[in-house]
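Lab notebook, bench 4. Still working through the backlog of constructs that have no structural model yet. Next entry is a single chain of 403 residues. Request: give me the structure tokens for it.
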Amino acid sequence: MIPAAPAGSYTRARRIELIALFGLLTCFTPIGIDLYLPALPSIAREFKAPIADIEHSLAAFFLGIAVGQAVVGPISDRFGRRVPIIVGLILYIVGSTACALAQGPLTLDAARFFQACGSCAGTVLARACVRDLFRPGEAARIFAQMLLILSVSPLFAPFVGGWMLLVTGWRSLFWLQAAAALLTLAVVWLALPESHPGSDRRLHPLHVLKDYWHIARDRHFYGYILPSILSGAGLYVFLTGWPHVVIDVYNIAPQYFGFTFVLNGVGLILFSQGTARWLKHHRGQPLLMAALAANALCGFGGLVFGMTDWGGILGLIPWMFLFCSLMGSINPTAAGLTMHHFGHCAGMASALIGIFLYGGGTIASMAMGSFTARTPIPMTALIAGFGITGFITYLLFRPAEAR
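Model written out:
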């Protein structure tokens, strides 16, 4: 194991290596989502179940992330970051294997839940490690740089998933995830430093809940995170509903699904790296407000095109592209502005961000999964509603320094 250096003292090469590793650890959650999206209709046909029942596996995944983060955050603040990350990767491997062997919707839901509990360790603790190892003011910019790696998933995962589905079937998608996690486990074992020595923080459930409540009621937390949750909920609606809209409503073959999805990855890269450059020299609050406003406008534009069916799927794609791409500015900026104020409990603060983000995502995904829609209207209406309420919430609750 490589020891951690004092905050801010890394060479440029080591800094790039750490940011790349943290970005890799955050990839397992989106890979767990994006890779199997083209397979949802195929899984439904094999299990002889309605598409809505299979879409619930996405909600189970989001719920697993929310629950897992509630546990891993306090544990990492008490015992350190490295061991929980390793345990999380092992759990992800076991969960992926169980998904590949699932025999029905309920067993798939259960396996996805445990797979998500494993994936959340990397997502939560990568943010906490950044707060441990780098200067507080750098967090938002580093999160945006990590998002460059995270954004590669939407570029390739749906293509890989669509073509593997055609050649080897949907179960191979989960075997691939297990193999990727096994390789990452080896890299983490060799290259990840322990960034946090641990503490005497109590792990009694009531004490943990009290600490979470203390963080959640701070305006620096909910003033930035609540708008991000609402806007992000629209993204989870898109992830849940888009495969059905593309494959079943517009009758596009699953292997070509990736062509309707790839621009979102490009957009996330462009917006996240633009955000990183902006935050190097400017405050994050004006950028967050502008991104939330644009997000709401794009959601509304998508609703108009969904209701009128102007241009069919080609009319919808630009609005969905912009809505999803703007999350590349919203999420890292909101997380960085929040984490700046919670260096003493970075693991719990990072976990609480994830609990709310994925808890909101679970509810949004279940809401979308309650429809077996014949048009894109339910999806676009939910996306627009979440985008608009996210912007309004920021105007109402933003901290004083953002006014």
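Notes after review: The chain has a mean pLDDT of 85. The chain has one domain: 12-402. Flag for follow-up if needed.
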